[in-house]
Design a protein that fits this description.
This protein is α+β, with helices and mostly antiparallel strands and 149 residues long. Helix content is 38%, strand content 16%.
Length: 149
């Protein structure tokens, strides 16, 4: 028996079956897309830029992506773990230093404490795995061994 799936479903099924655990950041979309208009007494700043950012965030369809990922993971018998998104991109995955200055550029992460440098997205992904109590492996993710230093 054959089943026709929309193109996005093939992508999700491929990724979901490749990994045992899927870890996602729990993003506070409502507060991320809050208006910057302010009030008559305290008008907002950069309202036009914030409006464009809000539109881009909502157009990205993060909620829809999350819903589909959770559904496909359930179909494949895989686990989805949500972690808090707070400071994942500013935390050093080596020493744990949290500092906004660690992100010297959009794609570059350099720890101001230990000097560890890597691509910012990879560093954030490692932090997300650590928050989910998982460690990166060659294929997917494996539970962290608490006795392993």
């Amino acid at each position: 028996m054959y089943m026709t799936l929309p193109p996005n479903d093939y992508v999700f099924l491929g990724n979901v079956t490749r990994y045992d655990v899927i870890t996602l950041e729990k993003l506070p979309l409502r507060s991320m897309t809050r208006s910057a208009k302010g009030s008559m007494q305290a008008p907002g700043k950069n309202v036009r830029q914030k409006s464009s950012l809000n539109r881009a965030i909502l157009d990205a369809g993060w909620s829809q992506f999350t819903n589909i990922a959770v559904d496909k993971a359930a179909e494949a018998g895989r686990q989805v773990v949500f972690v808090t998104a707070k400071y994942t991109s500013q935390t050093c995955s080596q020493c744990g230093c949290v500092d906004a200055a660690n992100r010297c550029m959009q794609a570059v992460f350099v720890c101001v404490s230990c000097g560890y440098a890597m691509h910012a997205d990879v560093n954030a992904a490692i932090n997300i795995l650590k928050r989910a109590k998982l460690s990166p492996t060659g294929r997917g993710a494996a539970p962290v061994d608490p006795t392993d230093p």
